[in-house]
Amino acid sequence: MNVIAIVGRLGSTPELKTTSSGKSVASFNVAVADPYDKDNATWFRVTAWGKSAEFAATYLEKGRLVSINGRMTCRKYEHEGQKRESWELVADNVQGL
How many angstroms separate the first and last alpha carbons of the chain? Predict the structure, then answer.
């Protein structure tokens, strides 16, 4: 089962876009503080779709504390001949705290 829940602060204001098929999508970054090292955080790239995307773009801004539930996905691609992968959290639920 691929389920992840995080609580952290937005590192960027969500950017809302619409796909060619008319679906809403928002992208943003969230920093989750390390409870053992106050100077360290883990950053997550987050993508929200549909109503969650519209909520994030309308009500959330950089620095806001948020709770996100979703799943991790890996996108594999090639850049300048080198194989790369990018992990992102696809949000099922986004809440401002």
Answer: 26
Looking at the predicted structure, is the pLDDT value of residue 49 above 90? Answer: yes
Report the DSSP pairing between strands 82-96 and 37-49: parallel
Listed in sequence order, the DSSP H helices in the chain are 50-59
> What is the token pair recorded at 67?
């709770």
pTM (2 decimals)?
Answer: 0.85
Sort strands 24-34 and 4-10 into parallel, antiparallel or unpaired: antiparallel
Among 77, 1, 95, 56, residue whose Cα is nearest residue 87: 77
Number of H helices, E strands in the chain: 1, 6
List Cβ neighbours of 75 (8 Å cut-off, separation of 6 or more): 85, 86, 87, 88
- What is the model's pLDDT at position 1? 86
